[in-house]
Design brief:
The chain is built from 19 helices and 32 strands. It is globular and about 90 Å long. By secondary structure, it is α+β, with helices and mostly antiparallel strands. The strands form six sheets. Strands 21, 22, 23, 24, 25, 26, 27, 30, 31 and 32 form a ten-stranded mixed beta sheet that branches. 47% of the residues are buried. Strand 28 (546-548) and strand 29 (554-556) form a beta hairpin. Helix 1 packs antiparallel against helix 2 (132-143), helix 2 packs antiparallel against helix 3 (147-158) and helix 8 packs antiparallel against helix 10.
Length: 686
């Protein structure tokens, strides 16, 4: 982006009703925050609205905004991505705001379109109108002079949109693709169809003819002979679906492939964007984008970056997906088989043939997709089970009321699992946690290691003497200032299991199969940390995976939502990849724990140690999983209580170190869509 040399301002009133203000965006010498935003009038003590656009790119980095105060203090804000072409952010400028600096992804063609200012009264009034109870809470926090909490409540109420309102939200943010149309690569489109699909096939063809990228050829494979639609486009061939053939027989030398279903319609920019993504520096060989369902208020499928476990059970890449290069060569041998099952077979083959660095996601809605048949989940499950059997993979498909999940086999014999619990006093907690592990768990090979941080309660010490009689229990003394990471590392070092399970003392077992669910995942060679589904006492979600960047650092997604919340793409019903999981209940192979040096006790004694640990596992090549099969109750930090005073200063220092170490991951959590809000803990739009 070129720095502005003059004041510029859009003439329209901003969507969020901010009054437009003239601005300039000037270059700086800062290697990261390379642009400084200057306003033509004083914005201190007011709310600012930024509207900016960017082109869709593979693995985009969210913009960062750094606010510097008069006394030199700095605050960092992670702004929304511009997945649909543009984004809008609402933030507060304190009375002592001295400078506003931006870090942008230079690949994206970032352009700041408009800047607006709003009074605090107008934001409070909007909050009172849309979320009256939150307005009361914000006013209370303002009286307490808790600026951060006030700001977060107001921004979460006025700057965030429920995903159910996606259509209207996207309409205000969608921008046409401005990049040149790429040249050269021939795209083969394959569409299996049945006799009743003629009208839907015609709709799909109409969307293809409207593509800016014109180097495509379509094969419509009819399930019966004598069926066809009229077309005079030489790029379209119609034939009976060759069930006995392989995918390679349909390609005819084409260098890229996309699969369509009758009724799928592509955005006019779709093929141009997908083909351009294949030419990104990391040369992906499979590129997919987001989609919407049909209807007046369609549900969006805002997809994560490549998530193989999620793809196995949900086939989430779907339409539109483009295969190319070496991956396409490896897929040529996939048998076509029955036309109504080919999409699932191709998707499963892609999961097992695609390397982790060969798949890319364009975070933009580029298609409207036809609804799946009513029996699609059952058919998918049956095909997956056949695939697992034929490839001799140690897993089986298991149905549940809302779909199905994969049940990976435990090794024989099951490995010893060492459960490590740091604790201090609080008999009410450690008694419940220890009893659940020892007597409420069906796993056959358990070792319990309690790392005691200087308990003095006689009742707790007496309970320890009772526990010592169980040969499965080990007690380790670890006195001194509370350092969760050091205690965990000491407990793991003293344990004997091939799998170690980190467990808080304020966690209670709810289902006896929790440990089996964790261990069967942790034993997979490619998996690092495995986290559990943790519930508050009222039964709502406490932990369903960690999003890096949520709340500006890292946070639990979907907190306080109903326990059966399906989540985007239905992912809360199945085991799937996340960037991190909480150490309140975390399983990992001992060798993997040791390979990355355990928890970082020097930099993250109390907070962020689990997230940092998972991210270091990812850097070493391991994926982190969350599974809904391991269900526990968690009282969350009951032993420690809230961080205030010196504890708050320690928390902020650890937070700053975490941000410095993992800044790029904070700007783009690969398993969380860049259009989703980092302000609220739900899957909302920002």
């Amino acid at each position: 982006m070129r720095p502005s040399e003059r004041w510029d301002c859009a003439g329209d009133v901003l969507t969020a009703s901010g009054r437009p203000v003239a601005f300039s965006l000037d270059a700086t010498d800062d290697p990261l925050f390379g642009h400084r935003l200057r306003l033509a009038e004083n914005g201190r003590g007011r709310w600012i609205v930024l509207m900016y656009r960017a082109n869709p790119v593979v693995r985009p980095l969210r913009p960062l905004l750094r606010l510097t105060r008069d006394d030199g203090r700095r605050e960092l804000f992670v702004l929304p991505g511009a997945g649909q072409g543009a984004a809008c952010w609402l933030g507060f400028l304190p009375a002592d705001a001295a400078a506003i600096d931006l870090a942008i992804d230079e690949r994206s063609g970032f352009v700041l379109e408009r800047v607006g200012l709003r009074s605090e009264a107008s934001v409070f009034a909007e909050c009172l109108r849309v979320r009256p109870l939150r307005a009361i809470s914000a006013f209370y926090q303002r009286l307490r002079r808790n600026e951060r909490r006030t700001r977060d409540i107001l921004r979460g109420s006025c700057g965030v949109t429920p995903v159910a309102n996606f259509a209207d939200w996207a309409r205000r943010r969608t921008r046409a693709d401005a990049a040149p149309v790429p040249e050269g690569r021939a795209v083969r489109l394959v569409m299996p169809a049945g006799p009743a699909d003629a009208e839907r096939v015609a709709a799909t063809i109409a969307s293809l003819k409207a593509q800016r990228y014109a180097v495509w050829r379509l094969v419509v494979g009819w399930s019966e002979a004598g069926v066809a639609i009229l077309t005079d486009d030489a790029r379209i061939a119609q034939r009976v679906w060759p069930a006995s053939a392989c995918l390679g027989d349909l390609l005819n030398g084409d260098s890229a492939l996309a699969l369509l279903a009758p009724g799928d319609t592509l955005d006019p920019d779709a093929l141009a964007i997908l083909v351009r993504a294949l030419a990104e520096p990391d040369r992906p060989q499979m590129v997919y984008a987001d989609a919407q369902g049909e209807g007046p208020d369609p549900t969006p499928a805002l997809k994560p970056d490549w998530s193989p476990d999620l793809a196995l059970t949900t086939a989430y890449p779907g339409t539109p997906t483009l295969y190319a290069g070496g991956l396409l060569e490896r897929l040529k041998a996939v048998p076509l088989g029955a036309p109504d099952a080919f999409a699932v077979r191709l998707g499963l083959a892609a999961v097992y043939h695609a390397g982790r660095d060969e798949v890319a996601h364009v975070p933009r809605v580029l298609a409207r997709v036809a609804p799946p048949p009513p029996d699609s989940a059952e058919r998918h499950a049956a095909i997956l089970q056949t695939h697992l059997t034929e490839t001799r993979r140690p897993a089986r498909v298991e149905a549940h009321p809302t779909g199905f999940d994969l049940l990976w086999a435990l090794p024989e014999p099951p490995p010893l699992a060492s459960v490590v619990i740091p604790s201090r006093d609080r008999l009410d907690l450690i008694r419940v946690a220890a009893d659940g592990v020892l007597n409420g768990t069906d796993y056959p090979a358990i070792e319990l290691v309690i790392v005691d941080n200087g308990s003095t309660d006689p009742a707790v010490l007496a309970h320890y003497e009772t526990l010592r009689r169980d040969p499965r229990v080990r007690l380790l003394s670890c006195p001194g200032p509370f350092n969760f990471s050091a205690m965990i590392n000491a407990g793991v070092a003293a344990s004997r299991g091939d799998v170690v399970v980190l467990l808080n003392n304020d966690v209670a077992v709810l289902r006896e199969d929790w440990l089996s669910a964790l261990v069967r995942q942790a034993c997979r060679p490619e998996i690092g940390a495995v986290g559990a589904k943790l519930l508050y006492a009222d039964g709502t979600l406490q932990h369903a995976g960690v999003v890096v960047g949520l709340g500006g650092r890292a946070g639990h997604i979907l907190r306080r939502r109903p326990a059966d919340t399906p989540g985007m793409l239905g992912r809360m019903r199945v085991a799937h990849e996340v960037s991190a999981v909480t150490a309140a209940c975390l399983a990992v192979g001992r060798a993997k724990f040791d390979a990355v040096g355990g928890l970082d006790a020097d930099n993250f004694a109390v907070d962020f140690n689990d997230v940092d640990f998972c991210l270091r596992l990812a850097a070493a090549g391991y994926r982190t999983l969350w599974t809904p099969r391991a269900v526990m109750a968690h009282l969350e930090s009951t032993s420690r209580g809230p961080a205030v005073g010196a504890a708050r200063k320690r928390f902020e220092a650890e937070a700053d170190r975490f941000v410095a170490r993992w800044r790029d991951t904070i700007r783009h959590d690969p398993y969380y869509h860049p259009d989703l809000s980092l302000t609220t803990f739900g899957e909302d739009l920002e």
